[in-house]
Amino acid sequence: MSKLMFPYLTKDVWSWTPEPEEQIRLEQLAQAQPKRKSEWVWRGFFRTQSGPMSRREVELKASSARLWLETILLDGPRPAKEVLQLAKLEGFSEWGVRRAKKH
């Protein structure tokens, strides 16, 4: 029996009989359990080796990056490449400096 594109109506009841292979596949799909995704864990913006930093530590690090950026740019504009190299020497990440620039 070939597959029907649309089920047909007999005696006021919609009926469809799948082929044996199709029936087995449908039963397997019904029994299959979806894979469970791992739980989301908040990790924070800044991380240390022991885990996420506390809110106070984050604020201190962000404010120190802002203050450092202000002092570096006090004499006037500098090339971004130079500022990022100086930041790396001081222990600030590139994205920490970019975040300090925005805020």
Can you tell me about this structure?
With 103 residues, this protein is mainly alpha-helical. It has a domain of 51 residues. 49% of the residues lie in helices and 10% in strands. It has 4 helices and 4 strands. The strands form 2 sheets. Strands 1-2 form a two-stranded antiparallel sheet. Strands 3-4 form a two-stranded antiparallel ribbon. Helix 2 packs across helix 4. The longest helix is centred in the middle third of the chain and has 18 residues. The radius of gyration is 31 Å and the shape is elongated. The chain starts with 7 loop residues before the first strand and ends with a helix.
Quick rundown:
By secondary structure, the chain is mainly α. Helix content is 49%, strand content 10%. It has a domain of 51 residues.
N-to-C span: 69 Å
User: What level of helicity do the residues show?
Assistant: 40-55%
Provide the low-confidence segments as ranges.
none
Q: Please provide the count of β strands.
A: 4
**Strand neighbour order, sheet with most strands:** 1-2
Number of helices: 4
Rg calculated over all Cα atoms: 31 Å
Structural class call reads mainly alpha
- Rough outline: elongated
Task: Describe the main β-sheet briefly.
Answer: 2 strands, antiparallel
Could you spell the SSE succession in H and E letters?
EEHEEHHH
Mean pLDDT across the residues is 78
Strand percentage lies at 5-15%
